Amino acid sequence: MLTFPCAKINLGLNIITERADGFHDLETVFYPVPLTDVLEIKHMDPDFPSATPCDLKVTGNAVDCDEAQNLVVKAYQLLAAEYEIPRIHAHLYKRIPSQAGLGGGSSDGAFMIRLLDERFRLNIGIAEMERHAARLGSDCAFFITAEPSFATGRGEVLEPADGPRGNLKGYWLALAKPDVAVSTREAYAQIRCQKPAKSCRDIVRQPIETWHRELTNDFETPVFKAHPVLADIKQRLYDLGAVYAQMSGSGSAIFGIFRQEPAGLAQAFPDLFTHCARL
Among residues of the chain, what percentage have pLDDT more than 70? Predict the structure, then answer.
């Protein structure tokens, strides 16, 4: 049985306050985008000699992948602790780049929960699946429905975004990611927490032409300072005609939103991962 875990972008990202548990409260709008991994599960033969009940193989765009620590395996273990689930083979084909701020690993874990629920008729329900997913990671719960969502708390408290799907329908998305690893810990350490003057949910309800004046990602300032190439990529997306451009999450992927399919994306970024799709 197959499923296709999707990537996400953040439309705005504001770090509100540091919590007593060491995490941060934030505000962001999660938006699903048509760039996917591929996840397949099959029954494991009773005689197959596997040391683990979830035998995972990862191929594709996977760099130094520790399969035992993959969120796909952790999702299986999470549900197997509460439900009767048989041993399985899982194959994850990676197309979403890692360390990009696109949520690829989180999506894989959440879609594994969805896949197990459907394949083995666990009848868990969306709210309970979101609760399980939140235990895997702060942004995992979003991928249970993968609908545009206004996220607060650590990213696990979700409400309808009420607007971005209508705003962006028919636009084109371009992604560009260099071979840059961003330290989220260091980026957080340089952020001054504060509530924005206007919520990103309110901003994305506005015409997209207004976003570049108000819709911000708090990580851009420290991350662009450490990695100037990312600021250059953002400017080049605007030069190509983007209506809005921003770093996704804590990086290092930069996205641009265009009215028409951007011409020459791969030529503009010959040494980068690029992806273009209609929203």
Answer: 97
